[in-house]
């Protein structure tokens, strides 16, 4: 067997005691003060500085430097940016330096001031030390004795190769080797008196007992069974009974908020205004693990508190919540416990080139297991919820703050929560793993890259909520669900006030409110004119009302999409008399056909708007939140009716609304010749006022597209994606027009592109014809809409069959050049996809919209 390469500690006598350091050793010193650690660091450096090995000092604390030597490289790391960023920087440095390097680390215990949790110090040690060992290094670390929890101390002891306890008694220093891996002598694991440069073992049992008696330390302190994190909150609880000034209370709220609520300065300001110390402690009482609870959870809690503080009436209007929060540290610990951290670092190092690594990591996350401590806490939570359906929602650190919404990028998973406790635990943990894995989906990685967040720490916390609703025979769902916006950028009528807000409503689960519906419609309402529909001028409104409903089947333990009529035929009460209108025309036709008579209803929500104060109440709710945030907001909510017919609102989510700027009113050109107008329309656009030149127009011709086979329709989508990749949005403004709904998963409803296949265009238009079945879906409030807003894509819908619409796309042939480079030679596809480049030197193409008049024009002009 090859003899290990040895290295001196700088003390010959200590080398003899431990049989020298060996390459690969991680060496931990438990000390009472930093000067003792510094003495051993200094001796090591002095003895090894002239060797061929490079020495690097990893500097990350506020204490005085351990090393003041210009020949030693100092590598600074900012621990304030969190665990992942801290580990990543050190991991990258270690990788860059390679094998056979010496490292000196600052005192690990001082990371508690930055992270406030022992468990993450243990995790850092578990992922860093094996990698250092693999690279054949020697690394020095220190911790303060009795400063860390027993669990973290045990993790360090189990992971390191060498562990020294260093203490002083009667002005004498003692070194006690607690662990020296793969080495042994009869006196090795005894305290050693440091006498000059000699390390003398204390062999008498009486002397050892007397020594520890004088030391007088109480390692059995019950507080050390707790993480430093828990001790912080215990002390905060004790402070409630203390006579503190307002400034002292605010200081404690700010301290605790920064370690487990958010790092967003604007959200922290709101918390300091609206949260009490008791609020903070109440959230902590429902926290599983440690770390941040994430943006989605904070937004929900903050919105509720803002409303209740604003008026006592909200206490009766809002359903109470009893959510639980799974801290972001649980996600990191899960990766560490399942030996996935190294793979995580590989994926993070080159996110643009590591989709394969991400997919591999994603699969391994789905197969991992939770440690016993977390399992026990999960089981207690499930016992609390019983068999009530719950939802596991992503609540990452970057979600739902000012700047990035991450709309629909991470998973939310329903747990119908039926069966034995073990069965419920298995389904729940499967849902948790799926949400964790969604951080590595291609869509999420693309979003992070697009917003320059690939190298930002994305801590995934979870929000576990009781699903709002009630049992209706075999099903569970809320009476109404929806999304609301304090500012309405989709104003389809000049009399609508954008500041009054808007809502998007559905019957049943809110999944149909936040996603574009395939072959179905949500109800959109402006809160100041709720019965004014955006489909004015189209055929019967009932064709554009909701036909299907998402529910939880509690008997079959799964989520289902059913026909609303099917539920009503059971019969299941959908409160149709309160939210729907009888469709007597359809009932008459059914009777004429000799079919069994059934009631038929159109879920317009008009009775709800006209017979209750809901529109006014909801507008006040949104304005109250907008005023507190000093910014437009969007929310997710449910509405349930009690036995008296009164409604209650359950506020599920609140975040700053990502909106494009509202520019000043635009003046349209006067007396524009008809032969210069490409199209002109009233209403049906989103994005506020716009005045822009267009350099390229891409058209998928609706009637020609309608005649294609399904496979050819998918090919059209891929061609659009390739054209999209050629666009430089900074210098080229592109208008993309096509039939029905862009992004539909059903080709017969629209072109089935992914968002990444049209995200470089500046203006997106949907063309609606009745005879083809292609009808736009006003996507305001969906994740699709949020993607468009964040990508600054202006949206419009054109209905050529409407009398007031001018629609003359053939004019492009007169003013623009066609391109066929990216389009296959199949004649049917070249008839479908047209690409027009606006020719320099010829009349330019301009698009103008004005939100106050609800007019939009696209025309050619010489100016």
From TrEMBL:
The species this protein was found in: Desulfosporosinus nitroreducens
Transmembrane annotation, as ranges: none
Protein name as catalogued: Phosphoenolpyruvate synthase
EC class: transferase
Family per similarity comment: Belongs to the PEP-utilizing enzyme family.
UniProt cofactor(s): Mg(2+)
Primary role: Catalyzes the phosphorylation of pyruvate to phosphoenolpyruvate.
Domain Pyruvate phosphate dikinase AMP/ATP-binding intervals: 293-665
EC number per UniProt: 2.7.9.2
Keywords for the protein's UniProt record, in alphabetical order: ATP-binding, Kinase, Magnesium, Metal-binding, Nucleotide-binding, Transferase
Pfam families: PPDK_N
Alphabetical list of SUPFAM superfamilies matching this protein: Glutathione synthetase ATP-binding domain-like
Reactions it catalyzes: pyruvate + ATP + H2O = phosphoenolpyruvate + AMP + phosphate + 2 H(+)
Gene3D superfamilies tied to this protein: ATP-grasp fold, A domain (3.30.1490.20)
Pathway: Carbohydrate biosynthesis; gluconeogenesis
